[in-house]
Amino acid sequence: MVEPVRPGAAASLPDTAEVVIVGAGPVGLLLAAELTRRGVDPLLLERRSSVGGGTRAIGVHAPVLAALEPSGITDRLLATATRVSRGEARSRAGLLGTVRFDRLDRRFPFVATLAQADTEAAIGGPGVHRGTGVQRVEPEGGRMRVRTTGGDVRARIVVVAGGAAGRELAYRKGAVRVRAYADRYLMTDVAVDTAKHPVAIVHLDRPGVLESFPLPGGRRRFVAWDPVPDDHDPAHQRERLQAALVAHGLDAAAAQVTAATGFRVRRAVAPRLRRDRLFVIGDAAHEVSPIGGQGMNLGLLDAVTLAPLLTQWLRQGEPPTDALDHWERRRVASARTSATIATLNTALGRPLAPTADAARQRLLRILLAPPTGRLLAHAYAMGFDRDA
Predict the structure, then answer these.
(1) What are the pLDDT digits (tens) for 257-275?
(2) Residue 184 forms beta bridges with which residues?
(3) Lowest mean pLDDT among 3-7, 285-289, 304-308
(4) Within 13 A of 67's CA, how many CA atoms are on the CB side?
(5) What is the CATH number of domain 82-110+181-264+352-380?
(6) For 10-57+117-178+267-342, which CATH superfamily applies?
């Protein structure tokens, strides 16, 4: 379990470190845990004084589960996670098709769903210096100087894993093209799932997408396209999400909704993840729409594949340049693939006129049938990631 350092404990910061990791979300925690497992002592900095609450990241995909198995993290994740073996696409007219993860040739033929806080607890790792904001990162005489609210730290290597907010530490303004989608979504978790075999369900009808994912403890997450994206009044958001659920015959779920959160989505894929001793991973490097659920998984694969290369560098004293270049190309290509899939998913879930909606349903029936249905399951399970 990660033990937080007392907020404002700037005096406890060391003057030097082998590796400084900026950001203690799942990606930063995993990199710290993997480095620690290999005998490296990382310094993990987090500006938040406490562990974050709400989250959109709930699914851990097969490639990540396989990559984390040697460390024992996978066993800890699966001890509490719900295993989702298939997903269904539905409309008011009925079932359009099924995505079968359980028919893929994978060691873990399912998506493991659990709250992000539980994912972070399963990852564990070294202590986190909380309440420590990083203001600037700059090279200094063969090392890196990290300027923080608690003082300066000099490190051999710095990894920015602090989400989109950390992007400015590594890139010049405008260096990473960010595309903001016009779409906005409403989300809530409610205790309504009594299914013996958990199934993810995507409703695609004229008013826009309504997604539903099983979670541990008989809970289910609902995400709906928001028809009034500029109205952020909490009561109105709750009412719109309830209306979307009722429109799909989910009255029992609608009655359980006490609050809804709204969020927009963006797309950003940095062309480079490394500049000498400075690395960028996770959402700081690539932001994709959560419609498809691959963003956190991309970052986790960034971390688990980078850790052995950083360890090699620190132990041998020289950077494994060819291996690092190869790592960077794989991770950038994987992010572009996931971003493309997420963009297509986002477009597919928008409201349509009757004729276009009927065409969408016909197309989905074709795509979800064999043999293309297996290919879609492969794509949604991150089978096209270069490190899968």
Answers:
(1) 999 999 998 999 999 999 9
(2) 264
(3) 3-7
(4) 26
(5) 3.30.9.30
(6) FAD/NAD(P)-binding domain (3.50.50.60)
